[in-house]
Design brief:
Helices cover 42% and strands 28% of the residues. The chain starts with a helix and ends in an 11-residue tail after the last helix. The protein contains eight helices and nine strands. It is an alpha+beta fold and 269 residues long.
């Protein structure tokens, strides 16, 4: 594995965020995560943490740090790999599918990738199946966060998210969006990293507040059915379009960790 101060700083922070998220979710849910380590086929590996709980029907908080050589197919898609196909990547991926249809499914990931170039990517989005009263505050908080770093970020990253998490075959969005960015590399690496860290901290606080405020609200079977139908869209997106799923499969990642984001149950009408 590469010995690079910036890469190691990103790796260490992703692992710290993982520990904090697991601690928060376990305290609210009451159940413990199952922790499974895995080795990458080339270099490195990761830790898959999954929960089937009282509040979270299925959730995962995964970290990985891997290296290797991109195949010919991937070299045309990844910057900096045509001349040198070697890469190193470190990141965290979080997906929470709640038991209650009152609570949206929540997704966050961020990563730092080094080829002959280097960049951050990631973001967050939420998928309610019912009216979510905190939606406006959620978007406003992301806008405030982005504006601290660049006034253009929120408009650009929100649109990127809306465009990315769109099911073309159904002509509908997966959820209500958030922000999404990739190939983030300015002349100030420290500032880029701080933006990524603050995005992770925002997500951490958002899931904590959301779970605590909605976990005890009652729901009925009709609302649960709406959740299951919405989850079918989540599954379709992940299998048809999700770049993280494709990246993991193409680079020989852990299958269970890659497909962690799939909902536990879904319904097609």
């Amino acid at each position: 594995m590469i010995d690079d101060p910036k890469f190691n700083s990103a790796k260490d922070w992703f692992e710290k965020l993982r520990a904090n998220l697991i601690d928060t979710i376990q305290k609210i849910d009451g159940n413990k995560f199952e922790i499974i380590s895995w080795d990458h086929k080339s270099d490195g590996g990761g830790v898959m943490s999954k929960i089937k709980g009282n509040i979270i029907e299925k959730g995962g908080v995964n970290v990985s740090t891997v290296g290797g050589v991109f195949n010919e197919k991937m070299r045309d898609k990844i910057p900096g790999t045509k001349e040198n196909p070697y890469y190193n990547a470190t990141g965290i991926s979080v997906v929470l599918h709640p038991m209650s249809p009152k609570i949206p499914s929540m997704h966050f990931n961020t990563r730092f990738i080094k080829t002959s170039q280097e960049w951050f990517g990631g973001g967050m989005d939420i998928t309610p199946c019912l009216v979510f009263s905190s939606e406006e505050n959620y978007h406003r908080g992301l806008e405030v966060l982005c504006n601290k770093y660049d006034k253009s970020y929120y408009t650009k990253f929100k649109k990127w998210c809306d465009d990315y998490f769109f099911l073309k075959h159904r002509n509908e969005p997966r959820g209500v969006g958030g922000i999404f960015f990739d190939y983030l590399h300015t002349d100030d690496w420290v500032k880029d990293f701080e933006f990524v860290q603050e995005t992770g901290t925002y997500f951490h606080q958002f899931i904590k507040n959301t779970l605590i405020s909605l976990k005890d609200q009652e729901w009925n079977e009709d609302e649960k059915k709406k959740q299951l139908v919405k989850r079918s869209r989540y599954a379709e997106f992940n299998l048809l379009y999700d770049r993280g799923t494709k990246f993991g499969l193409e680079t020989g990642g852990n299958i269970d960790a890659i497909l962690m984001s799939m909902p536990p149950h879904a319904m097609w009408e």
